[in-house]
Amino acid sequence: MKKIPHLVQYQGSKRNLATQILRFFPNKFGRLIEPFAGSAAMTIACASERKAERFLLNDLNKPLVDLLKLVIEEPEYTAKKYKEIWTEQHVDSIEHYYEIRNKFNLTQDPMCFLYLLARCVKGSVRYNSEGLFNQSPDKRRKGTNPSQMEKNIYDISSLLKGKVDFHSLDYKNIFNMALPGDIIYMDPPYQGVCGEKDSRYFSGIAHAEFVEELKQLIKKKISFVISYDGQCGNKIYGNEISIKAGIKHIELKAGRSSQATLLGKNEITYESLYISHDLINP
Length: 282
What we know:
alpha/beta
């Protein structure tokens, strides 16, 4: 199986499910749109499989989009700057982490953000009520080694350079850019925990409003695939998308829940996938 590159361990990333999700995409299509890009795992996987010709990456978290743009369009600069920041930490790596975190919260520098993502606990982004990044460092390690990070960066850039448009807009604005022949892949903020706001996300979304926007996509005959909550053991997270026409709901087996394992339970996680009918019955 082809190894799909990734930038950092990013909690919530669909990297491990990407191959399963891509089975519902056509072999070839024009453009993949990710309104909630995160670490761009699906875009990277889709480019690796050579399914789409163009890509649109969007996220309301602008430093994240700025970082993705640097990785894809300026890999040499990005690898060099990461190495500089990473190398500075060896006198006191914990103090250095907090210095970089403070600098990021003041400047929104995407290169500081890359270091924080590579070093923070479980690759897990956290924000406080003021929108400031507040996750702690993983004290057991010092983050991705620069040589490995350089490889990650160049592998991603080689797949996507010159093929991506970057935005940091509300998802509804991105929906309005979609055309027939595009596919929108959506992995919106985790509704089962966050509702419209959660420390893990820069911004949440309103479920009812999201459903109404999906109905408009169906009317416009825009193809889409959505990862949207799911089930772990007997616990169901979030509301279902209650659209009866033009959409199909399936469940993907995502594997054993790491959180449940820590609690001494053996529970399997299933993630909900909603797919526009044209992709089920092309």
